Amino acid sequence: MLEPLVKSIEVPCSQEKAFDMFLGGMANWWPLSKISISVMRGGSTKSLRIEPVEGGRIAEVSDTDEEHLWGTVKSYKPHEFIGMDFHIPHPSETTRVETLLEIGFTALDGGGTRVELTQSNWEAFGDMAEMCRGGYNGAWGMIFEQAYKSACET
What we know:
Blueprint: E1 5-11, H1 15-23, H2 26-29, H3 37-40, E2 45-50, E3 57-62, E4 67-77, E5 81-86, E6 99-107, E7 113-120, H4 129-153
Antiparallel strand pairs: 1-7, 2-3, 3-4, 4-5, 5-6, 6-7
């Protein structure tokens, strides 16, 4: 069993803003021109749609209006926690494989927020589990630790 991937950052904004930026502002900080199903297929991404309710979908919309599912919200506690089945599949993948992605938001003294991202269920990838975990580890460094954190600083 592979250990969960854990990334923890502190952002200089309120818990509410950090949570809202993660979900509502994701289309603004996620590098859609580099990391999306549409780009992997040679196109571009028009938007990112997030339904912030349990059972809600997280999907990108391509420039041809095709929708690509990234995940489904499993747990939703506004300003505190979101849990989702999550995976951005490569176009060559023939079956849907998902990790469990959980993001917790904890208010800190002084007005900042600790945001902890935990991704698990790597075993779902079978023989590719270690490689997928390694790929996500690098990607979250750029996406979560840099792009998201920078969006919270502005």
